[in-house]
Amino acid sequence: MICKMCKERGKDWEGSDPICYFEDPVQNWNCATINAIRDIFAPGGGWVEPEDLPKGVCITRSTDMTYGLICITNTGGEEGITGCLYVQWYKRRGATEALWLVQENEPRRPTERELLAIIQYFRKKS
Fold first, then answer.
1. Model's pTM, two decimal places?
2. What is the DSSP secondary structure assignment for residue 29, as one 8-state letter?
3. Please, which pLDDT band fits residue 94 given cuts at 50, 70 and 90?
4. How many CB atoms lie within 10 A of CB 22?
5. Arithmetic mean of pLDDT, 10-30
6. Secondary structure of 78-124 as H, E, C letters
7. pLDDT, tens digit, for every residue of 58-91?
8. Distances 11 to 14, 81, 108, 112 between C-alpha atoms, Å
9. CA–CA gap between residue 18 and residue 35 (Å, rounded)
10. Which secondary structure element, helix H or strand E, spans residue 60, and what is its range?
């Protein structure tokens, strides 16, 4: 299944074709939904100082890896999400190595609807 955001964006670059996270969560590449999640941590792929991140969002980087956590008390709306979203990616490349939603001590892969609710929540806040 290709996500709504990948369908809307299409392919607007030269090079490798995108692989939507919802088609292959392990080999994903340039998924528009996941890129929007990563933009919460680093708009446009740049570095944001931790104190400039939205409330509930934290990020740390090692030499090549970025680790991010979004803690949400309630996104509101139809898909009211509460929990933590863990995201891990290598450098500024298009793949995301780890993406887990933790709710009530149960880590699992998030659904497209949950990720869209998180994206919408943070777009409203900015």
1. 0.89
2. B
3. confident
4. 20
5. 93
6. CCCCCEEEEEEEECCCCCEEEEEEEECCEEECCCHHHHHHHHHHHHH
7. 988 888 888 999 998 876 666 677 889 999 998 7
8. 8, 30, 28, 19
9. 11
10. strand 57-61
* Site of tokens 């892969």: 109
pLDDT for position 44: 64
**C-alpha pair distances (Å), 56 with each of 16, 22, 32:** 34, 25, 22
CA–CA distance, 52 with 65 (Å, rounded to integer): 20
pLDDT of residue 24: 95
Domain range annotation of the chain: 19-125
Strand order in the sheet with 65-72: 57-61, 65-72, 83-90, 96-103, 106-108
